[in-house]
Amino acid sequence: MTDGQSLIDKPKNPAAESLRRMADRIERNAADGFGGCVVIIPPEGAGAPIEMLTICDQADIAQFYANINARVQARVSELQDQQARSQAFRR
Question: 46-60, pLDDT tens digit by residue?
Fold first, then answer.
């Protein structure tokens, strides 16, 4: 960023945008309570982020982590399937 360039003119970073979206969601749902959130941003070109917001402040913490785990495991399975298919074509 040059001295004359403002933050408004700065190009948007996709990873930072995911975090901003989550911050906006937290703010919009503040009245409903905050039960936790997660934003997992893979390296560029490696798929979509995993974003989850729990808005109940009485949330079951074990369930919160189970939901994160399930989403990560689903993504791992997708990637393993893609890798297996791409390796099959190479043979």
Answer: 888 999 999 886 768
